[in-house]
Amino acid sequence: MKHYRVRIIEDAEHDLIDLYNYVASHDSAEKAGYVLEQLESLCLGLTELPMRGHIPPEFDQIGITSYREIHFKPYRVIYQVIGQDIFIHGVFDGRRDMQSLLERRLLR
Length: 108
What we know:
The protein has one domain: YaeB-like fold. The chain has a 4-stranded mixed sheet. It has helices at residues 10-26, 29-44, 57-60, 98-106, and strands at residues 5-8, 67-72, 75-82, 85-93. The chain has 4 helices and 4 strands; from the N terminus they run βαααβββα. The protein is α+β, with helices and mostly antiparallel strands. Helix 1 runs antiparallel to helix 2. Helices cover 43% and strands 25% of the residues. A hairpin with a 2-residue loop joins strand 2 and strand 3 (75-82).
């Protein structure tokens, strides 16, 4: 079995910090900690079966198949598997305008 490494790029780290701050200020620090823990666990869990995620529909529509996503609803984790590395490109609230957000972030 292949051994994969999860790498969270800087943009995704900022996403996690922003999500934590948002949840903490609109709910509680306890809830924010729980959400952050679940998202980090989800990302680290990709070391086994990293291709289990599906192609984000926004990318599938335009023929880009190199990105995948997994969910901790309503949050979407967008990643890419390159060799033995899994690059987490973004962690987004799926209730946002994902089409333009993904285009700005990943297709720049």
